[in-house]
Amino acid sequence: MQMCGRFVGFRNAEQLQQYFPIDEMKCETVANFNVAPTQKVLAIVRENGSNLLDRYHWGLVPFWARDTGIGSKLINARSETLSEKPSFREAFKRRRCLIPADGFYEWTGTKGDRQPVLITLPDRSPFAFAGLWESWQDKKKEKPVYRSCTIITRAATGAVKAVHHRMPAILHPDMYDQWIDPDHYDLESLNQMLNETVVTDLIFHPVTKKMNSVSHNTPANLKPVQTEFDF
Q: Where are the beta strands (DSSP E) in the chain?
């Protein structure tokens, strides 16, 4: 099962700049309470010495791919194999990003009776997933560069283990600059960030099953609901 497969991001530009190292906003910010794979998501990358916030397709398309279809299969990248998998190893060295979020969803229960939960920081402040990004160009057609990203996952810890065995890698703020620095490519150090210096103090609560539909994109998705599930 994929993890993470849905998340939340609703901060405006001014709020994002308070929490993240952003030098230039390359796009407008739009609140999304049900972010899904293949949609465009916000990501912070460093290019030419500046930290740029822009929109990237969620689902990594490696530079060597024949087309963008592979992206739907690469929404997540396992931290344990980043330096081995052809789809991720070059991006892991040089093209790392921050993906801002306010929370992410996971499901628990049996097939046919799955209960969604929203997982956040205890103080509900925004955080950043560790991610990778790529640029892809269709060599057969004159189309704009296709920029994409993926969210790195790792073994679940703390409260998340009650819901799922995997969780996204959430970086500590003091790691942001090192993570997106393309000149910092010591793999041992990067792996240490993902294994020893990530945020694991998280909380969760059950939310409406209506959010199972991507079209149900409202602040109501965040509200706790009554459930018979015993967490």
A: 7-9, 24-25, 32-35, 40-47, 50-58, 76-78, 96-101, 103-108, 115-120, 127-136, 146-155, 166-168, 170-171, 203-206
d(CA 6, CA 58): 10
Domain 7-222 adopts which CATH fold? hypothetical protein yedk fold (3.90.1680)
Token pair of 110, please?
């049996």
| Domain boundaries of the chain, sorted by first residue | 7-222
User: Residue 187: enclosing H or E segment and its boundaries?
Assistant: helix 187-196
Contacts of 72 (CB under 8 A, 6+ apart): 37, 38, 59
pLDDT tens-digit series, residues 43-66: 999 999 999 999 999 999 999 999
Residues with catalytic function: 4, 106
pTM score, two decimals? Answer: 0.95
Q: Contact, 136 vs 148, CB < 8 A?
A: yes
- Spatial separation of the C-alpha atoms in residues 151 and 40, rounded to whole Å: 13
